[in-house]
Amino acid sequence: ADPHRIRLVPPGVDLQRFRPGDGEAAKSSLGLTGRRVALFVGRLQMLKGPDVAIRATAEAIRRSSRTTARLVLVLVGGPSGGPDRSLEVARLMELASEERIVDRVLFLPPMPHQELQRAYRAADVLLAPSRSESFGLVALEAQACGIPVIAASVGGLPYVVADGVSGLLVNGHDPRSYADRLVAILSDPVLAGRLSEGARAHAALYSWDITTERMRSVYAELSPAREYPVSMSGALAP
User: Fold this and answer.
1) What pLDDT, in 10s, does the model give residues 17-28?
2) What is the pLDDT of residues 147-161, one digit of tens each?
3) What is the pLDDT of residues 61-112, one digit of tens each?
4) How confident is the model at residue 55, as a pLDDT?
5) Closest Cα to residue 95, out of 75, 124, 115, 81?
6) Long-range contacts of 194-197 (CB under 8 A, 24+ apart)
7) CA quadruple 163, 164, 170, 175: dihedral, nearest 10
8) CA–CA separation, 143 vs 122, rounded Å?
9) Fewest beta carbons less than 10 Å away: which of 5, 39, 41, 185?
10) CA distances, 103 to each of 53, 68, 95, 123, 178 (Å)
11) What residues have CB less than 8 Å from 68, skipping those under 6 apart?
12) Which residue, among 148, 128, 146, has the nearest Cα to 138 in the 3D structure?
């Protein structure tokens, strides 16, 4: 395709719904009072990398027991289908058991979209280790809530997450690389605070207002200026 004939208009995020809030109240509502939370939101399938999130959390706990003493991994979502929808959850629970962190992993069922901000606000960091991702709306919503994101550098995620500004990107899917960044954020309040502020600012670049204006500009480019006749009543004629 001719790049000069391509216009990219990314989706937007509802900044009225997804915004910073009371993190402790959100944790309390999910039974996570006193915990530090690494969050995964998405379908529980290999494509989204929940297995990487579990292995990375286990590696972080082994590597820095003091920093991760109160850490739990919360996975929000369900399998994408199949004859037995519980098989993937059972497989991931077995993996958590093998990694000896079964008591540090909590599975929550899919939440209605209007309630997801509660999960984001309860998080200290979002893990998005997708093996493929067309855009990465979850990462954008989390950032709008002021949550730093650790994401795979695949698909749309390098555009949605500003590396070193709103989150940290990882090349590949080695759990040790995710653990490096997880420990870095949890152990450094200054870094966590800077990424949180950067996350909000970066997400603001993807507001629905901006998306709408970009769409309008595309239509304006395609449609030459036209004069619309006015009827005798003063209304625009069809």
Assistant:
1) 999 999 999 999
2) 999 999 999 999 999
3) 999 999 999 999 999 998 766 545 578 889 999 999 999 999 999 999 999 9
4) 98
5) 75
6) 195/148, 195/165, 195/166, 195/167, 195/168, 196/146, 196/147, 196/148, 197/146
7) -150
8) 13
9) 5
10) 15, 13, 12, 18, 20
11) 36, 60, 61, 183, 186
12) 128
Tracing tokens 């929000």 back to the chain, one arrives at 76
Task: Look at residue 231 and tell me whether its pLDDT is greater than 70.
Answer: no
Cβ atoms 39, 122 nearer than 8 A: yes
Report how far Cα 169 is from the mean position of its chain's Cα atoms: 12
